[in-house]
Amino acid sequence: MSANLGYLLGEGIKGIYRNRTVNIAALCVLIACLVITGSFVLAVLGLQNMVVAAGSRNEISVFVDETMSEEETAEIGRKLAELPNVKDVRFVSKTEGLESLKEQFGSLLEGLEEDNPLRDAYYLTLEELELVSETAASAAAIPGVAKVNYREDVAATLVRVRNTVAVLGVVFMLALGVVSTVIVSNAIRISAFARRTEISIMKIVGATNAFIRTSFVTEGVLVGLTGSLIAYVGQWLLYDKLVYPRLAQLSFIHVIPFSEVAIPMLLAFCAAGFFISAVGSALAIRRYLSF
Asked: Do 106 and 172 fall within a single domain?
């Protein structure tokens, strides 16, 4: 088994060298397709990250009845933290709230310290924006809660944007995958056409269709994996050294560091290169095994 594998790998490397012009063309096409796909994936992840960051700022405001004691207010906070879908609970006392307003409006609010009209408040960050209405209703049902405020329209818009970005990302990646497979398959088909005499000789001397197909697929897979690694390095350099430093300077954009997606992207590139080249090679060689 290992001897056969070694032989196939050796023949695949020799085949790449013998047909280097066509294989280089297929390699360049594959690299371009993977880098374009990878760039789009990074853009989609960045948009989703921005939506998630915006959603984390879309908090539910829970105001505590002013008749509640400190112990009762703290108990309300514990009950809020135990609610499903609540990721984080932030408490702002009415004194802190007044100080915050003073920073915005200055002397207009002077003299309200003794008769503070504000209420103690909890601000809830959610796990899932889709459940904002249910979470708000659960918070309002807690005894001692005077009022609950939230922007349902904003939450719904963020959810729609996130879902739309995800769907478009999947559709675009599938389309690029199909296009890449077709292009690489055509490049390999040209290689097979140029080697049709070699295929005929192999069949005359007794080579089976399975052996010939395996040889071509092995050659294609080697090209595919090589292209995947080159595309990955190119994607890393393009994003980490050129795109990320510039986008990170913009405070309104939440950019994902390449290190967070490095391993998944490497595995995805290798899997895509393997699949596209294997399928493309199998499709390209099929017609030349019929004679």
From this structure: no
Average pLDDT over residues 200-207: 76
- CA 172, distance to chain mean position in Å, is 13
Distance, CA of 172 to CA of 175 (rounded, Å)? 5
Q: Identify the band that residue 56 occupies on the pLDDT scale cut at 50, 70 and 90.
A: low
Residue type, 16: I
Q: Residue 61: what residue type?
A: S
**Which tokens hold the place of 72?**
């009762």
Residue-level pLDDT at 109: 56
DSSP string, 98-113: HHHHHHHHGGGGTT-S
Q: What is the CATH number of the domain that holds 109?
A: 3.30.70.3040
Using the CB atoms, write b or e for 123-147: b if 16+ within 10 Å.
ebebeebeebeebbebbeebeebee
Q: Which domain holds residue 269?
A: 2-53+157-289
Question: Which residues face 126 on adjacent strands?
Answer: 86
Of 37, 137, 35, give the one whose Cα is nearest residue 86.
Answer: 137
- The answer to whether the CB of 131 falls within 8 A of the CB of 124 is no
Question: CA angle at residue 184 from 6 to 267, to 5 degrees?
Answer: 65
45 and 118 belong to one structural domain: no
The pLDDT value recorded for residue 266 is 92
CA distance 223 to 230: 11
Looking at the fold, whether 125 and 269 belong to one and the same domain comes out as no
- Global pTM reads 0.63
48 or 80, higher pLDDT? 80
Residues 244, 258 contacting (CB under 8 angstroms): yes
pLDDT digit string (tens) for 9-45?
665 566 666 666 667 777 788 888 888 888 888 887 8
CB of 95 closer than 8 Å to CB of 116: yes
Q: Which residue has the higher pLDDT, 274 or 7?
A: 274
Check whether residue 89 and residue 143 sit in a common domain: yes
Instruction: Judge if 139 and 177 occupy the same domain.
Output: no
